[in-house]
Structure formats: structure tokens, C-alpha cells
Amino acid sequence: MPSGQLDFIPAVGTADFSAEQAQWLTLANRLGRERFAPRAATWDREASFPFANYDDLREAGLLALCVPRAFGGAGADFATYCMVGAEIGRFCGATALTYNMHICSTMWTGVLSDGIDMTPAQRDEHQARRELHFARVVRDGAVYAQPFSEGSAAAAGKAPFGTTARKVDGGWVLNGRKIFASLSGAADYYGILCTEDRGDQHPDMRDTLYIAVPGQADGLTVTGDWDPMGMRGTVSRTLLLKDVFVPDHEQLMPRGVYHRAAQTWPAMFFTLSPTYLGIAQAAYDFTVQYLRGEVPGQPPVKRRMYPTKQIAVAQMRIQLETMRSIFWRAIHEARPNPSKDERLRLYAAHYTVMEGANDIARLAIRTCGGQSMLKDLPLERLYRDSRCGALMLPWTAELILDRMGRETLYESGERDE
Ligand SMILES: Cc1cc2nc3c(=O)[nH]c(=O)nc-3n(C[C@H](O)[C@H](O)[C@H](O)COP(=O)(O)OP(=O)(O)OC[C@H]3O[C@@H](n4cnc5c(N)ncnc54)[C@H](O)[C@@H]3O)c2cc1C
């Protein structure tokens, strides 16, 4: 077998993988099949965090997948992460979605920051600070969360974050609240987006700060229930920050750089998609197995001979291939300052995956029928998990339509009057 080839079909489909991509995909597939899939029902039933999966990810070196090589990580690029994320999502959506939050924390500070304009002083500051964060991941196996949402227009990218950071001697004092903080109580560090409080009552998005708050910090509490419809293993509860002091070195990016980074690298918001491509693949895999009467532990009843089932499987495959194709193109086009054509395609790819995952899961249940949605089988969990993708800010399915329509019909700065 050539080095870039696999002996299984990954969620992104077969392709000409590099030797390294093939190696990471093989690892993700093996962990997923042997460990994550058998455990997935437990996290879902209990709405508990998949700690055992994280031990496996840590041991396999996957927590440091996107830490640059110069800092001891695997130095995987954006596209490679997206392939691996999809493969993990195929076996446990909650693990893939939370893993995405961690990986993004290493990409924002790593490969992305390298492509963002900074002054020489900012570059030096960033270089020194990220060394500390990367060492925590590589050496200690630390896990970073990414709680941005606040229940205001901030997570949609339309207003400054309400969580504030006030400069004090040697560091920052944070106050505020983050909702839907995946990895609540499980993360070693929470990458908090907040607005610098300059004392002038005029918060400005350009003053956004990105600061790591240690899970054990005084003044940080995890509150609220977590009993959602889907993605239950993400444990996305509420974080309250009350006069939390963090030293300067906890800044994940220099002052003002995050805002520029978010505008320069829109593909970063696409990183939520891989999980859902994986879920779509899982629903498709299950349907084929079920109709062939090959689901382990189930009676070998075949349902494949009915033309309606065959047509439904064909429809699912067409949708899956559409998702894979646009996903593949988007992850390889991802770069700083994409052209307008690339940006619109990126939105289209995100929408196609998020809505497509739920569509495939819906068809899977309709096609496999009543017994297939009993809770001892994974399909009903896949269906519930699949619905959550379109809700993720800043690129909810609705907001994607909003952006695509507006940005197609208006050039930047154009008005009607
Ligand atoms: C399983 C799960 C895990 C999550 N994990 C994280 C996490 O780790 N970190 C994190 O930061 N967030 C996370 N989120 C939160 C997510 O990104 C959204 O912030 C959250 O779903 C928003 O819910 P809401 O009811 O407050 O939305 P609202 O803000 O009330 O919006 C409701 C809908 O209205 C639309 N809308 C919102 N704002 C605007 C606007 N300005 N203009 C027009 N339409 C708008 C959107 O389509 C949106 O879906 C998670 C969510 C889920 C479901």
C-alpha cells in the first residue's frame, strides 16, 4: 500500500493523502472505532464529559496535533486537522466538537497568528507567551476550552464582548459570563474572549483580548444545568468570572490581534464543520449496515431488497458526496484574506455540512425505521447531535444565509442611499 493510502474509507472520502495525513487518519479511525464508539452512548446518557477519550487523545499525541513543530507539536495544517476532526466525529460527536475547541486554541495562537500582521514588539511578545501555552499542551497534556458565547450579539461578531478585562499591575482582572462553554469543569484552561475595560464606557471590538483563565482560578465558577437535546457529552455549562486575576503571560494573543485575526481568517469558523461531516458519515454507515442486516448484536434481518430503501441510500450518498466535495475544496482553499469567491464558497460549505448532516440523519431514521431509533443503537443520538451544528455562532445556518445574500449583493462599504 503506498504510504498515503488507507485500508479504510475516511469520512472525507478517499484521496491522495500525504504519509502524515494517512498516519493521523489511521490513528483517529482506530481510536474512534475501538474506543470512542463503544463509549459514546454513556456520555450521551449521562451528559458527562468523555474524560477517557481525552486520555486516549493525549496518549496518542492528538492534543498537540496543531502545535507547531518548533514547539514540540505535530505541526499539522488546517486541512489535516479538518480531516482528523471529521474522522473523530464519525465515532463520537461530543468528543470531536470539544476537541475542536481545544485544537482551535492551538491554531489561533499557532499557524493562524503566523499569518497575521503584527508589529515586531507584538510578534516578540506573542512568541514568548505562546511558548508557555504550547508547553502546557505538549508537556503536560493540558486541554484548552474556547468559551466565546455570551447570549448577546458578541458571539455573532456584531458587538464587543460583554466580558471585560481591566489592566492591573502584572496582569488583568476579568469579569463576566460565558454561556455554552463546552468542556466546562473539564478544561485546564479557558480561552476567554473579552473586551478591554478602559474605564471610558465605550467598549470597542478592536479592544478584544484573548486570555487563558486556569480552571482553578479564584473567582471562576461553573454554573447551570446541562440537560440538552444533543451533543450532551460536551458539557457546555455557564462560566461566571468574578474579579478573576490572571497574570500577563496568560494572554493568548497580543492586545487587539484577535479582532484582526478573526477578520483575516474566516475559515477558522469553519472548523466546527468536521464534526458534523463525521456525524453524517456515521449515519450513512449505519444505514448501509442496517439495511444489509449486519449491525452487530442485531438479528440479521435484511431490508436492502426494497427499491425505496435503495433509492434512499442513493440519495444519502449523493448528499454525502456533495458535502465531502465542497468540504474538501474549502479546507484546501483556507488561507488568510480569502477572495470574495472563496469566502462565499466557505459559507456555502459550512451551511451544506451543517444542514446536510441533519438531513442525512433524518433520512437514515426514515429509511431504517422504528427499531433503528431505539436507544441501544446510535442512530437516534446521531440525529440529535446532527441538529446542533446549525446553532453554532458566529456561523449559524441562518446567519450564513444572511451573510451570503448580503455579501453577494453589496460590495464592502456599499449603501443604497
Ligand atoms: C452543543 C453546543 C456546544 C457549544 N459549545 C460552545 C463553545 O464551546 N463555545 C462557545 O463560545 N459557544 C458554544 N456554543 C454556543 C453557540 O455557538 C451559540 O452561541 C449558541 O448556540 C447560541 O444560542 P442562543 O440561543 O443564545 O442564540 P441567540 O443569540 O439567541 O440566537 C438565536 C438564533 O438567532 C440568530 N441570530 C443570532 N444573532 C443574530 C444577529 N445578530 N442577527 C441575526 N440573527 C441572529 C442565529 O441564527 C441564532 O441561531 C455551543 C452550542 C451548542 C448547541
Automatic annotation (TrEMBL):
SUPFAM superfamilies in the record: Acyl-CoA dehydrogenase C-terminal domain-like, Acyl-CoA dehydrogenase NM domain-like
Pfam family, one: Acyl-CoA_dh_1
Gene3D superfamilies xref list: Acyl-CoA dehydrogenase/oxidase, N-terminal domain, Butyryl-CoA Dehydrogenase, subunit A, domain 2, Butyryl-CoA Dehydrogenase, subunit A, domain 3
Key words of the record: FAD, Flavoprotein
GO molecular function, a single term: flavin adenine dinucleotide binding
Domain Acyl-CoA oxidase/dehydrogenase middle: 162-244
Domain Acyl-CoA dehydrogenase/oxidase N-terminal span(s) in chain numbering: 19-107
Residue ranges of every copy of the Acyl-CoA dehydrogenase/oxidase C-terminal domain listed in the record: 275-389
Coiled-coil regions, chain positions: none
InterPro entries: Acyl-CoA_Oxase/DH_mid-dom (IPR006091), Acyl-CoA_Oxase/DH_mid-dom_sf (IPR046373), AcylCo_DH-like_C (IPR036250), AcylCo_DH/oxidase_C (IPR009075), AcylCoA_DH/ox_N (IPR013786), AcylCoA_DH/ox_N_sf (IPR037069), AcylCoA_DH/oxidase_NM_dom_sf (IPR009100)
Domain of life per record: Bacteria
Listed cofactors: FAD
Annotated family: Belongs to the acyl-CoA dehydrogenase family.
Name listed for the protein in its UniProt record: Alkylation response protein AidB-like acyl-CoA dehydrogenase
Organism, as annotated: Cupriavidus alkaliphilus
